Amino acid sequence: MEPGSPLDIVIAGGGTAGWMAAAVLARFIGNRASITLVESEEIGIVGVGEATIPQIHNLLIGLGIDQADFLRRTHASFKLGIEFVDWLRRGQSYVHSFGTVGRGVGLIPFRQLWLKGRALGTAGDYGDYSYNVAAARLGRMGREDGGKGGTPNLAYAYHFDASLFAPMLRDYAEGLGAKRVEGRISSVECSDEGDIAALRLDGDRRVAGNFFIDCTGFRSLLLGDALGVPFVDWTKWLPCDSAFAVPCASNPVFRPFTQSIARDAGWQWRIPLQTRTGNGHVFCSGFIGEDAAREALLANLDGEAQAEPRLIRFTTGHRAEYWSRNCVALGLAAGFMEPLESTSIHLVQSGLDRLLKLLGGDLANLDTARATFNRLSTIEWERVRDFLVLHYVANRREGEPFWDHCRAIDLPPTLAEKIALFEEAGLFIREEDELFLDDSWGQVMIGQGIMPRGWSPLADNVPADDVGPYLASLANAYRTKAATLPTHRQFVEAMTGKTMEHVH
Prior knowledge:
It is built from 15 helices and 21 strands. It is an alpha+beta fold. The longest helix has 27 residues.
């Protein structure tokens, strides 16, 4: 292929990953690329990823999608964080919130002041110093106000209906010239050199291209089957291998956060949308049978079930390469990360961002770009894996077989180092552009009972008598400000112009 010649990009598979790819590529390189998406209406999508993290704002802003229109079309709600219930031990909970925790003094990090206050007996719960947590506990949500009154803006993401998000992106992509071909992929045609040349469809049809994106889900028809890229299995660190998913009627308590509730052999998610609540039970089949897992889910719904629970089987891990020859995999075709921290959609988004930066005009000479893409993707996936593993291994649910098994897991070296540094110095060092930042690691470490053994000498620059009043003033300011915000329901209705009960 000559430099500067058109890109003929073929996306195999629709769903959220496929139509995200089509929308982003049509928006940013549609002027010199033809984009064709092949999907079959006969093939369903997994669609468990209904919760997101704040980076989704970059996607919506980049595409120029109006927030109110997005909320209306996808039945979305707001998400200030995730409440983890019973993960440390039964009866205990904490919130991993978005945004910052506390406010440092000069060069003194807030966590070090809190650790000193904790030793002095003058510090409250770590979550008391998060504006997001204060708002979440009160069921409130509000607009940005530039951080007036000494409180930060609320950092937020969304819950939305994935089955409605994909059609919205499809309309967007097709409006920019992307083409959709209906059909089931029967085989993948490769050139003599080993690159993918075309997709063969039912009815003896052929869709050719010079660059392919695999969004075929767990099947990974292109990257896994056709190109033979092996799968890296992470079951030894993340043993859950199944999930039941079911929607139920909305709860009158319209929470602006996701709930993750630890169960006997896994955990349950609750995701509140405008029209329903999304629920799922992620579990390890080696510790609980499918019938018992299904019943555990149905017995712990907020409202009446609206469908039969759907079983999804999976293996956590990723393809050894995310980009091989002329094919990049996104979404489940690249790998599976259980939805514990709502990273699935983000990993598609970051993969697209990486591809846009590295995809050159000369497809015959992309060896370095391909290697860089794979290296950075592996780092990102491994660091997210570590964050998920942390929740499991740092539990104190002694005498429960599944949780005992999780505590005995041999840690990935990268996670072992993070835990050791946090225990020694209350510190987290971000490396290689990894996704989760200091405040996220700190909230989960402390929430899961990992406590630093001391505090930084920097904190001793604040007199002991001043630490308690400073901490109390922060917590009070956050609670007071949060109490002035509208309820989550009021806020969503104001944004959408609709009364939620009338949305169908």
